[in-house]
Amino acid sequence: MFLELLIAISIGVIFGIFTGLTPGVHANLVAALLTSSSTFFLKFSSPLVLACFIISLAVTHTFLDFIPSIYLGAPETDNFLGVLPGHRYLLRGNGLMAVKLTIIGSFGALLLSIIFFPLFVLIITNFYDVIEKYIPYILILISSYVIITERKRLWALAIFILSGILGGIVFKLPNFENSLLPLLSGLFGVSTLLISLKDKNSIPKQNIVEEIKLRKAIAIRALLAGQLSGFMTAVLPGIGASTAALIGSQIAKLKDHGFMILLGSVNTVNFMLSIATLYAIEKARNGAIIAIKTFMDELTVNETILFLSSALIAGCISVFLALFIGRKFSSIITKVSYKILVITIIFFIFILTLILTKFIGIVILITATSIGLIPPLKKVRRINLMGCLLLPVIVYLLF
Fold first, then answer.
1. Could you state, in order of their start, the residue ranges of all structural domains in the chain?
2. Cβ 146 vs Cβ 243: under 8 Å
3. What are the helix (H) ranges across 175-300?
4. For 145-171, what is each residue's pLDDT tens digit?
5. Model's pTM, two decimal places?
6. Long-range contact list for 123-128, CB < 8 A, 24+ apart?
């Protein structure tokens, strides 16, 4: 059994490398495919082993999914805000530094999440039902705060509503799967790439930094803010990692290095909290945990400890993987024409959208890209585009 678990974790890490480095391919997609084929796989393995595979896959994904954002400007659905600060590091020759900062965030978040796991379970068990009643009002407050803190509030409000209407339409489409791919790729991915193409950037020689000057107080503040931000994403529907990170960074007063650590931590915290939620109240908060829930009954303490151990093993391996891959990207990226690279990524997103969502997905991608171009042109933060998720959720919960 022990050997079987180690093999499952190792294979999960390999799949996590693929999903983490491939724009548009999420760990939840692999988990969904496994769920649909679970009858076949359960002939050769146990539910516990399959669950450990999914956990190692998802954890590895959270460590590696910032690499495409930093080096290619191609966002994952969970970290699209990371495109901007991460890409800025790249254009200053510090792409590897950005990767290292997100690794600090992810690994630090993993350790803290395991330490705080009993506390998470206690909070979720006793307070989730109370919080659930006020979720739409909390979302309204968060949305209002993001808009009010803008200099051009009317434009921020218009962008929030416009993206929200688009999101509402997309989510209402019957039998339309993978809806987030064209929606978020257009709002945050292709629009960002088109702007960078217009600016005629070139990628400078990358500095292979071995040490980062980072004050311990900033790192600790960022990691604690990451726990808070991750809790927000796990409890509040519609609040993505980027929105939570923005709020967490303002509360903790983080910039540059601290913000990158925070961004790296949020998705890892979110996933670990999903395990806590499944254990405490038997609710699945993301695709990977939904997959686990389909072929496992109520979690025992021993099974939960095994899940946390699997996450820790996968996280330790992912640290070295992310460093190795980050160095390779840093040495290769300058040998590629930036213009050709950007056009290739846009083409890749277009083809992936066409394959997974057909012609309607292309229409959504083009529409979303058009809306996504408004914030940089009007000097408004892209975070207001999160209306695409927040507004539909608020309307659904209220009415």
1. 2-398
2. yes
3. 180-184, 191-198, 216-235, 241-252, 257-281, 287-294
4. 889 988 899 999 999 999 999 999 999
5. 0.81
6. 124/273, 124/276, 124/277, 124/280, 124/281, 125/280, 125/281, 128/235, 128/277, 128/280, 128/281
